Amino acid sequence: MRAAPRQLLSRFLPLYLCLSVFICGFSPGVYAQAKAPKQAAKKAPALERVDLLIAGGTVVTMDAGRRVLQDGAIAVRGDTIVAVGTRAELAARYAPARRINASGKLVLPGLINGHTHVPMTLLRGIADDLALQEWLEKYIFPAEARNVTEEFVTWGTRLAALEMIRGGTTTFADMYYFEDTVARETKAAGMRGVLGQSILDFPVPGFKTVPEGLAYAEKFLAHWKGDPLIHAAVAAHSIYTCSEGTLKQSAALARRYGAPILIHVAETKRELDESRAKHGASPVAYLEKIGVLGPDVLAAHCVWLSSADIAILAKYQVGCVHNPSSNMMLASGVAPIVEMRAGGVRVGLGTDGPAGSNNDLNMMEELDLAAKLQKISRMDPRALGAKEALEMATIEGARALHMESEIGSLEAGKKADLIVLRLDAPHAVPMYSVYSQIVYALKASDVETVVIGGRAVMENRRVLTLNEAEVIAKAREFGERVKRSLAAPPAK
Ligand SMILES: [Zn+2]
Fold it and tell me: Which stretches of 333-447 are DSSP H helices?
């Protein structure tokens, strides 16, 4: 994704590399009146007003007790969940302005895609199955240098938002250029984002020098401070594209604003070998030594880790994001997810990509692959189970983003980010275990309704915040533009 001078290519590694609820009409008042009209008229408590009640179906809370409620319900006021319980309990307490009927369906916390580069949707599939250097040099760098503008980022983010909403993602963490534009479009789509303006040591779309990049990042942080949906962040790209000074300055800037720091860490064996040669330390130990690690860091990949690295990541409460599709597609390696979880590391799940290292933003697929990759690499089907995989895309993903007090589970006091999945497709029946069904059988296309911060952004598979036909037509148009740009002689 970088427009880097050719002489810096050798330092590169994979960079790019997810009605009406039949609340039965039974208000307690009505029920009581039938039995004892006079008494009930005096004593029945008034129903509390809420904005939205999602009721019926199986509610998979992912709360501390991992409660699964049959015939459950969730009451929402503003952007926040006010109660989770059974349909009968909540119908007796709340008078909703709106209802969503989830009978016969599953209700889950919205999925959290912990690592991606969303505008790259417009470069999806530009060139795959190549050696990394060839892929970067012949395709990605020229395509980015000639095409990545604010307009490109606008439409790429819209396309990504459409895809993510349709697949049940409600929050994502991103690293790209023109991140202020990504933020504007993310908010317009009604999504929640931890959005990192990328900083690298060489010219990239949007800035030519590190001071220029940091100045853009600072304006970006100031602009979005306090926004309920957008968490502006600084993304120091990696230890092999950022000098020690750049890494320290990026972290210091983020910390002045109380903002997250995003970075790729220990993605490939080459990154590990080069770090040892250059810094005499693993990538994790080096980042610890220079003061970058902390409970505000979100580290993508973390594939090549020693047990000492795992202990450091746990000690500093660094959030790590596992990207199984990307790690397989780029043959990066297999992250030690079982050891990381056992060692107390916060481990979320992401898609990476979507160009060259996935190529989509499908978190339902990542859930399935996360579990299966650990199983096959360890030759042990018990290595990582369906429930654990789902944790990584929900509550553990929230912990990785340091947002567990806000999102990741369906509980009173948290943001109302939730998805409703249908269970009537051939691959969805019968159902014995909710976790197995979600992780190994259900598809992104089963996501029917998506609510983010109390607002329905998709209902009955219709995205309400984006013009789908327009976005898809524009994506095709950009595809043609990119092809033409690659056929043209390089600009001087
Ligand atoms: Zn990445």
Answer: 337-342, 363-378, 386-393, 395-400, 434-436
pLDDT in tens, 117-172: 999 999 999 999 987 777 878 888 789 989 999 999 999 999 999 999 999 999 99
Rg (CA), the chain: 23
C-alpha of residue 198 to centroid of ligand 1, in Å: 11
Average pLDDT over residues 316-342: 97
Residue 339 C-alpha to ligand 1 middle, in angstroms? 22
Quote the tokens at residue 489: 């002689």
Instruction: Write the CB contacts of 444 (distance below 8 Å, at least 6 apart in sequence).
Output: 166, 167, 168, 362, 363, 364, 365
pLDDT for the residue 43: 63
Closest CA to 133 of 280, 295, 312, 6: 6
Distance CA 309, CA 291 (A): 15
Is residue 360 within 8 Å of 124, Cβ to Cβ?
yes
116 CA to centre of ligand 1 in angstroms: 6
CA of 15 to the centre of ligand 1 (A): 5
Coil/strand/helix, residue 133: helix
94 C-alpha to center of ligand 1: Å? 44
- In sequence order, the 6+-apart residues with CB closer than 8 A to the CB of 115 are 18, 173, 175, 298, 300, 301, 321, 323, 348, 350, 351, 352
CA distances to 78, 146, 369, 435, 437 from 432, rounded to whole Å, are: 35, 52, 21, 9, 8
How would you classify the pairing of strands 447-452 and 111-116?
unpaired
For residue 288, give both structure tokens: 């610890």
Taking the C-alpha atoms of residue 74 and residue 414, their distance in angstroms, rounded to an integer, is 11
Q: For residue range 272-307, what is the model confidence (pLDDT) as tens digits? A: 999 999 999 999 999 999 999 999 999 999 999 999
Report pLDDT for 45. 77
Q: What is the C-alpha to C-alpha distance for residues 394 and 409, in angstroms, rounded to an integer?
A: 7
